[in-house]
Fold:
Amino acid sequence: MRGFGSGDVRTEARGAWLFERIVTTGSVVLSTVGGSEAGTAAAHRYLSSPCADWQGILQAFAARTAQACAGRPIVAVQDTSEINFTPAAAGRHGLGPAGNGRNPGFFLHPVIAVDAEDEAVLGLVDAQLWTRAARQTAPRHRRPVEDKESQRWITGAAAAATALADTARSLIVVADQEGDIYSHFARRPAGSDLLVRARHDRPLVEGGSLQDKASWPVATTGTVEVPARPGVPARIAKVRLQAGPVEVVRPSGPGAREPASLRLHGVCVQELEPPVGVTPLCWRLLTTRAVPDAAAAQDMVRLYRLRWRIEEVFRALKRDGLGLDETQVRVPDKLFRLSALALGAAVRILQLVDARDGSRRPMQDVLDKAALPVVAELGRACEGSTDRLRNPHPVGNLSWLEWIVARHGGWNAHNSPPGPKVVARGWERFSAMLAGALLARDSLPSRP
Structure:
């Protein structure tokens, strides 16, 4: 994948190899990823190379994602997570304090693309990585948004529009309550919309505030799938939906260059019959996209719910998956390069897991189209004579590829789907065979 080495062929190849090894091993422990003393040394050389930088790695992922998003309605989800190391993790230099103000750590803010129709994760669009200064800064209310970490939401939306607005059929950028920033709405990039869960009870031009709004012209009922959380099982919530236009007033403070007010649309989601002992669902959503009727209000709720896909990426990235928060890499430059690769790997792993359930997405989400004939040959080699041992998926889509990968991992094609370990083992074997077959094909002399 180009972008892993600033044009240096050897560095590009080593970066692509390292990325595939992170995916197949499900780890960012370099001794595990390398597989041998020589492999571990190669991983360290790449992460230390002046020809590799984390921004270039992210650009390589973004280029593939833009191809996958072409002609599709896209939800670009952005959110922030921290990588927090324990105080016992000695020898870490150049990292600022994590969220608790004590432990060393850094922050990452990815943007991922999700297909608005089939809800498939299409790829990584962008990410910001930074450390927090240990020194005290001026109070938040005295600083413009450009001098706050809040700027990340505006930057993330701009990156999504730059990468996808010209190729996607439509683009809406989704954020949780931390993204409820007046400047975020005021600086919405052309060719995109915003959908943000409200955090502030904003005053309205007509008087009153957002939470006081009672005369919504759109009202209906529906259901919302609420994902499981620690100690709380998943459930289907019956909700009342209300929606209508609002005009919010610019807050006081250093933001006078923003418009004095903004015309938005609000959607209020209130759970009607929550389980005993469970806090009822209550979302107030603000969007730049029109919500003229009940169907549009329900669609806004569905699109906002896709924000949970980035939570799955974070789980795959940290202790429940690759273990980035337990890495022994200590130097910030190397750590950021490893983090960029790990973000791309977490997305790839999620795509492969999704494919077990019959994804209709094309294989090109994870492999180049030019590899299709060779993949087909490898797939035919692992099929059998019975229907159960034949690939049931359309040639060239992601589920078709995942079936082939799982067979290389030892899956017997019974009714139960292959697990993550089988998929990881299969990807390791399959990718090695694919690389060898492509190399042999490209080395053959051309016919006269």
